[in-house]
């Protein structure tokens, strides 16, 4: 009887491990997509601004955008209810919507509020506008994540 219990347990663990791997791969792909969308919305090459120029404003904007995407991905997984295929599709769609919302948020703040991302990334010291925009990223991510749930 021990062997009979071990087989269903092994199958369940195997399916669970594959689901985790699938969500992790999708999550990483969405984070990469999010980084490149933030890069497109940011003047200059975001990787260069962070690595070579050590620009804290660019790093904060990228980090907050990726944290927001992570919130959306986590909420999508949570709301999937164990249905792997539907959960992966929902995570993909909601993740992409969240990424678009982040980019639009940057553009809106740049145009409407007058906080220029271009100017923020030209400044070598941390700017209050970058902090505000970073919190906005997180708020958009949280709002989107809660809407998913």
UniProtKB/TrEMBL annotation:
Membrane spanning stretches: 20-38, 59-81, 87-109, 130-148
The principal location of this protein is: membrane
Q: How does the protein's chain sit in the membrane according to the entry?
A: Multi-pass membrane protein
| Record keywords | Cell membrane, Membrane, Transmembrane, Transmembrane helix
Q: Which GO terms describe its cellular component?
A: plasma membrane
Query: Is Transferase among this UniProt entry's keywords?
Result: no
Q: What is this protein called?
A: Uncharacterized membrane protein YjfL (UPF0719 family)
